[in-house]
Each structure stands twice: as C-alpha cells, then as structure tokens.
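Ticket reopened. Same input as before:
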Amino acid sequence: MTEFIVVTSGKGGVGKTTTSASIAVGLARRGKKVAVIDFDIGLRNLDLIMGCERRVVYDFVNVIHGECTLKQALIKDKRIDTLHVLAASQTRDKDALTKEGVEKVLNELRDEGFDYVICDSPAGIERGAFLAMYFADRAVVVVNPEVSSVRDSDRILGLLASKTRRAELGAAPVETHLLLTRYNPVRVADGEMMSIDDVKDILGLDVLGVVPESEGVLSASNSGVPVILDDEASAGQAYEDAVARLLGEQRPMRFLDVPKKGFLARMFGG
Amino acid sequence: MGIFDFLRARNTSTASVARERLRIIVAQERSQRGAPDYLPLLRRELLEVIRKYVSVEQDAVDIHVERDGEHDVLELSVALPDRTAPAHVA
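Engineering reply: fixed in the latest deploy. New output:
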C-alpha cells in the first residue's frame, strides 16, 4: 500500500520543504521506499535542500509530458538507497501540471511499490498547491506560531476537507496533522509567542511535532543535508520524533521548555 | 527571571492578543466555509433592494447556507428598524 502524504501550509517560508526533506529521509532510513516530489513548478528548491541539485536531468513536468520515463527522472539519494527525489520543473508555466498528469505519475509510483510518496506543496492555494493535496491520504500542515501562518493553515484545513479526491469521493477524510516549526520556548515563556496549546486550541487539531527554532536548520540547508540527519541539532531530533509519531509511535514532546540557565544568567537575565 | 529584568521595557503578552484575534477570525471564516462564492454579492444586492423601501443598517441582512440532508437551505434574515423609528420609504 502506497501512502500519499502532502506537506502543505498555505503561507510561504514556514518550512514546508525542510519538513518534506526530513520526513522523507526519516521514513527512508527506516527502510521504507520513499519518493519526495517538488510541486513548486517554476521555483524548484527541494533539490537544493536534499543536496542533489546538480544531478537533476529530467523533472516532474518532463515525466508528465512523456519526454522521459519516471525512472529517468527519479534521482536516487546518495545517502539512503530507498530514497528518491523528483524535482520540479524550473522553466515551464504553472499550467504544466494537470490532474491527469499528476495522477499518472502517482499511480506509477504506486505500481513501482513505493511505500510513501511525499508531496512538497508550494505556498498559496493555486494549482500546484491544489494538486499536491488532491490525491493525499494524509496531510502534514506546517505552521509557525504566528497569526498569518495560523490563519492560512486553517484555510488549508478547509480545503483538505473539501477539495481533495477523498472529499469528492466521500471516502474517509484526509488524515491531518499539525507540525509546529520555528518554535521558540523562551519567547513563549515571555508571552511573546503563541504556545503549542494555543495553536492546537485555535485549529482544533493534534500536533505531530514541534520543531524548535534552531541554527541547525540553516546550516543543514546551506550544506544540502536534510536537518534530520544532524543528530546534534534539536530540530533534527524533533523531526525524528515527528516521523516516529507519523508511524504510530508514542513519543513525549521535547524542546518545549526554556533551557535551564546557570546562576549568573539567572541573576542578570541572560 | 533576572533581577534586572524590570529595566527592560515589557509589553503585555502579545501572544494572548494574537490568540484572541485568531479565535475570532478563524471562527468567522469557518462559518463561511463551503458557502457559495456568490453569497457576498447576493447579500450586497439584496441590501440595495431592501434599502429602496426600508432604511436599514449596513449589517441588517444576514445570509447563510445550511445543509439539511440532501438539500441546501439558503437562510436569509433581515433586521428591520425599530417600529418607533419613522419608516423611510423612497
């Protein structure tokens, strides 16, 4: 059984691609056969985050147009055998994606025996975002604890409930999870940032994981190594927990509390 | 909290302001979700027609769609002005 998972958010810059890359790696290093697809036509970026930008020959739109086979376009990850990347097209117009074309590619991935297909959605609610979520079985909605991101996420939750294949067929709804990113426990403690409970409460959904704001995320994207592969980074560990929960494991939330300060830092408010 | 923290300028919790604003706007947007796109325009035109005959407030027309089994029901309510107020008929 192939599971299609969309990583989406509505708002841009909240960490969709970072999340897609880390979830894909997390699943693949558990031995699952995984493909991760960049749906951001015209603004290809997943390849950079995955560190395979120089190996892109064919892309998603080439496959849809029959200009190459799916096998030719899938880039095999150098680190993990069972992980494959399908890059977005860089030059074509946004209308290059069609529902039939996307369905054809996803069906082929299913026939190839992939366990998971991660669809990295573009920002917005235009065609790319719509098609990234349309065939989904599950959705990871990436949200920052910030007003515009939370509101946009709620809009996306509405679309997941009404504009997907599952909704149209009247099948079981898309299983939806929230993933909080850029979480800063210090600012939450100071009342400057909404807490995990606030966001949970407003959106009425459970949280799959909380990824703290971490230097590791930028250095990971700088070097083209998904942050989940950085065991030192708190963000990497948080993604690892999120992947475990996605697979049904119970794990306590980490990185929600303010790191303990030393005596001097406490005295002088470090 | 450090002993010099009082020196820092502190706002009242902006996170709680964000929470309350979001509660309201999300609830409002959810109540309109799935409603046909023409509702806002329909509401405006109805208001114009009603105002030809009765002087009503800007928000006097309340309109929404409810699902009742197989049917969609368009529910429309118009708040007329107080009876004691002089009716203004064009």
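The first strand of chain B starts at residue 61 and ends at 68. Chain B touches chain A through 23 residues (CB under 8 Å). Please confirm and we'll close it.
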